[in-house]
Amino acid sequence: MDYVYSTTENGIATLEFSHSQANCLPLDFLYRLSEELNKLSVDDTVKVVLLRSAGEKTFCAGAFFDELSQVDSLEKGKEFFSGFALVLNAIRQCAKPIIGRAQGKAVGGGVGILACCDYVFATEQASIRLPELSIGIGPFVIAPVIERKMGTAALSELSFDPEQWKNAYWAEKKGLFARVFENISDMDKEIDYFLRKLSSYPIESLVEIKKILWKSTPSWENLLFENASISGKLALSDFTKNKIAKKNK
Q1: pTM for the structure as a whole
Q2: Using CA of residue 129, residue 181, residue 199, residue 151, what is the dihedral sign?
Q3: DSSP strand pairing (119-123 vs 3-9)
Q4: For 83, how many CA atoms within 13 A lie in the half-sphere containing its CB?
Q5: How far apart, in whole angstroms, are the C-alpha atoms of residue 66 and residue 157?
Q6: Residue 209 main-chain phi, psi, to 5 deg
Q7: Which of 132, 134, 136 is nearest to 234 (CA)?
Q8: Closest CA to 166 of 118, 117, 119, 131
Q9: Which residues pair with 179 in a beta bridge?
């Protein structure tokens, strides 16, 4: 069952998405995620947001390749990659802290979403990879997010070795994950405790800390969409078209 929905209880909002193809994110899902985040940002009953996906194996497989294969113009290319720009900016601009839950692997845009969260819990199964270069494009939209969270060296290592999975402890060492657990059960127990504790603090303090954390990123309002244009242009190449066609067989 594919869905995007949010629920709120005791000041804690849970925003969850699910897609049958390894929790990939079609464009309409990205629109819905950004809309939900914008609503939660101004909801006075919400103090903290948990961003999670369904299932146990994969947090997010990134972009929906069936849609990417339909890109046949610069306009459609920019529109496709701008979906992630919308979500990343919505996370950045959300007045409430966003806590990420990575129960499994994250690929491409999924890594970018985790990097944009303010604090991330993960399991040992949460390996990460940026495969974009292997299909002739690059992680341009998510690059500023990953560079901010993990540093230029980590972004370079992930970008230029697109077939290599990095394990959860590598990601923790580089700053993507705050804490890594052996299994989902242990992680969820700690997340529950963490969220209840965080939601007990004054909302004014949480909002001001969020502002401080993101004070150097106002340029992202335009930058991420400019980078989406780069990805959209490269997606029209014969190399990329052939690679996507092979993956969709």
Answers
A1: 0.96
A2: negative
A3: unpaired
A4: 23
A5: 28
A6: -65, -40
A7: 136
A8: 131
A9: 121
Using CA atoms, how far apart are residues 196 and 105, in angstroms rounded to an integer? 26
Residues counted in the chain: 249
46 close to 90: Cβ distance less than 8 angstroms: no
The pair of three-digit structure tokens given for residue 241, joined into one six-digit string? 């078209």
Span 18-74, pLDDT tens digits: 999 999 999 999 999 999 999 999 999 999 999 999 999 999 999 888 888 888 899
Q: Coil, strand or helix: which one is 219?
A: coil
Domain boundaries, the chain: 3-198
Structural domain 3-198, CATH architecture: Alpha-Beta Complex (3.90)
| Residue carrying structure tokens 């014969």 | 238
State how far the Cα of 80 lies from the Cα of 30, in Å rounded to an integer. Answer: 10
Going by the DSSP 8-state scheme, the letter that residue 25 receives in this structure is B
| Share of residues in the chain with pLDDT > 90 (%) | 92
